[in-house]
Amino acid sequence: MPTTINNIPVYDPTAAPVQSTSNGTSSADLSKNFLKMLTVQLQNQDPMNPMDNAAMTSQLAALNQVDGINKLNTSVSALVAQMQSANFMNLSSTVGKTALAQGSQVYFSGNAVSMAAKLDAPAASLKAVIRDSDSQIVNQFDFGPTPSGMTDFIWDGGNDSGMHVASGVYTLELIATDEQGKTTTPTAYVGSLVASIGQEGSDMKVGLSDGRNILTTDIVKWLAI
Questions:
Q1: Taking the CB of residue 74, how many other CB atoms lie within 10 A of it?
Q2: What is the spatial distance between Cα 4 and Cα 74, in angstroms, rounded to a whole number?
Q3: CA-CA distance, 82 to 90, in Å (whole number)?
Q4: CA torsion, points 201, 203, 207, 208, in degrees to nearest 10?
Q5: Does the pTM exceed 0.85?
Q6: pLDDT digits (tens, 9 = 90+) for 22-66
Q7: 3-state DSSP helix/strand/coil percent for the chain, to nearest 5?
Q8: Class of the domain covering 95-223
Q9: Phi, psi of 68 (to 5 degrees)
């Protein structure tokens, strides 16, 4: 039985040449265009006032400089891509670890939750209040005088009676009071297990088990729990 082979390209010497697409910004395109311009310039120069050798040398030097910059940009882009790939692989090892990032919602699943308060100035008193979905106070902590910076603490899931609460979403509320009695709200941070690592363009995204999807730059601390 004869076999038919289709879609095999056949060279046709009478066919018009296929035009290659180019934006004219590659090193080869720049060199080609410059040489064309230089050739036309030499052909049309004034015989009584020919082009100065120094001017031609300057133009050639400028071409080499542009060509070098293009090659450098290509090398830097390749280096950045390699670094991003390496960072992505390194971040994959953080899956299952606890990341501390800004937030006030606390997902309690039976395990202790790491938290932190960031104070811009020293406080005479710092309080942390944990509320349930009905805004009822579950537990609260009084840290007393607290210096500026990060203050870490852990909630084990217990209420004000020492009993463990049910799994669910709770809210962390921070209140700082200065020597004059003025109250402020420090920035709250909540820890959560890393569930996934993803990449969106040049951004590295971290998916947390409490539902947050944050940038790697939003993580202020890695925790053992």
A1: 12
A2: 46
A3: 12
A4: -170
A5: no
A6: 555 555 666 666 667 667 766 666 666 665 556 666 766 666 676
A7: 30, 40, 35
A8: mainly beta
A9: -65, -40
